[in-house]
Amino acid sequence: MNIKQIFRNNEEWIAEKLKTDADYFKKLTYGQNPEVLYIGCSDSRVTAEELMGAGPGEVFVHRNIANMVPNNDLNAQTVVTYAIKYLKVKHIIVCGHYHCGGVKAAMESSDLGLLNPWLRNIRDVYRLHKEELDSIEEEHDRYDRLVELNVQEQCVNVIKTADYQKAYSERAITVHGWVFDVHSGKLIDLKIDFDDILKHIMEIYRLI
Ligand code: CO
Fold first, then answer.
1. How much is the average pLDDT of 45-67?
2. Which domain holds residue 24?
3. Distance 64 CA to ligand 1 centre (A)
4. Does residue 20 share a domain with residue 90?
5. pTM higher than the cut 0.85
6. Is residue 24 located within the same domain as residue 107?
7. Residue 152 and residue 91: Cα distance in Å, rounded?
8. β partners of residue 92
9. Which of the residues are catalytic?
10. Sheet of strand 36-41: strand arrangement
């Protein structure tokens, strides 16, 4: 991608926005009030706002390799806290995607240096669901299922936080697990049954 072209695109984008609303950028200076926190993969094919048809101001976004919410990652945890406590978002979406390079790397045996501790979080997801995953014959299907289970576990990681538990006891807030299908462009709601999952583990993770 040509860097000069990016600045030309930006000029065109400004002109386009001002054509429909002369105060478009003035309004953006008033602040943000997004109702949605989106946690997705850094993968360049999975563009957060574009695939949801969302504009500036609508979605608070956090992206990292394989859409993770590790319990000891200050970056992800800060985003979750800020979104819940201060932006008071109503929805938290963890969106994975099929053909995720991060998830694929976690299924293979290779030393990737600094990436190892990050990807180990996904290996831990595999270990938690080893029985189900090992029973899937086709490697490709197992890979897709690990993408989905990783989304599920990252949603659970959000629910493990005190900020989420406190907000949940006070107001309407929902966690959603989604997958983006690179093949079709479709956004798929995994319809994760959190009540069923949490029934067995909440006694361990309840903080408030
Ligand atoms: Co990815």
1. 95
2. 1-30
3. 8
4. no
5. yes
6. no
7. 15
8. 37, 175
9. 41, 43, 45, 97, 100
10. 59-64, 36-41, 91-97, 174-181, 186-189
Are residues 85 and 182 both part of a single domain?
yes
Residues 22 and 53 in one domain: no
Q: Are residues 24 and 102 in the same domain?
A: no
* pLDDT score of 203: 92
Which run of H or E residues covers position 143?
Answer: helix 139-159
User: What are the tokens at 194?
Assistant: 């959190």
The domain total for the chain is: 2
Residue 1 confidence (pLDDT): 83
Residues 67, 161 share a domain: yes
Give yes or no: residues 10 and 95 share one domain. no
Mean pLDDT of the chain: 96
CA distance 144 to 133: 10
Three-state SS for 119? helix
96-144 pLDDT per residue, tens: 999 999 999 999 999 999 999 999 999 999 999 999 999 999 999 999 9
Cα 101 to ligand 1 centroid, rounded to whole Å: 5
CATH number at residue 125: 3.40.1050.10
**Whether 3 and 62 share a structural domain:** no
What was the pLDDT predicted at 118?
97
Asked if residue 200 has pLDDT above 90, the reply is no
Distance 2 CA to ligand 1 centre (A): 24
